[in-house]
Amino acid sequence: HSPSNCPLDKDQLGQHTWGFLHTVAAYYPDKPSSDQQKDMSTFFTLLSKFYPCEVCATDLAEQLKVRPPATSSQSSLSQWLCWLHNGVNEKLGKPLFDCTKVNERWRDGWSDGSCDY
Ligand code: FAD
């Protein structure tokens, strides 16, 4: 990889974007208002229009049709995003992530304390 003050390549952009998206989902309300639910759906639609990796954006738009964002709660959104990410992992031949661990990975830290400092 190039130095950190250079433009992002596809993988770097992907890592940062997933980090951002999973963290947004981790802190999404347990009981979102209907406006928040609508806005979150719009957010993913807009992401699929502006994500600066063409194959990724096209794929995302397709996936949003297959299974629209589950915006009814923090848990449902985080699980939906885990499903979305696993679809990309599968396509790229990467290991699938265990979605029961999504809050440990992105919000609470691992139960062995390895993220506590
Ligand atoms: P990443 O896949 O970037 O994952 C980062 C971290 O997230 C992992 O280390 C792991 O701890 C965690 N994680 C992994 N899976 C999950 C999950 N299911 N749920 C929660 N956490 C998880 N690249 C392409 O080449 N082609 C594409 O079509 C493509 N489409 C993309 C679409 C989107 C919307 C995004 C955001 C990225 C896309 N990418 C695509 C980039 C690709 O997904 C990876 O980001 C990139 O290949 C770097 O992978 P990585 O192995 O570093 O880990």
Short description:
The chain is mainly alpha-helical and 117 residues long. The chain has helices at residues 10-26, 34-50, 54-66, 74-91, 102-108. It contains five helices and no strands.
What would your notes on this structure say?
The protein has 117 residues and is mostly helical. 62% of the residues lie in helices and 0% in strands. The chain contains five helices and no strands. It has helices at 10-26, 34-50, 54-66, 74-91, 102-108. The longest helix has 18 residues, at 74-91. It starts with 9 loop residues before the first helix and ends in a 9-residue tail after the last helix. Residues 10-11, 14-15, 17-18, 22, 55-56, 59-60, 82, 85-86, 88-89, 92, 94, 97, 102, 105 line the site of flavin-adenine dinucleotide (FAD).
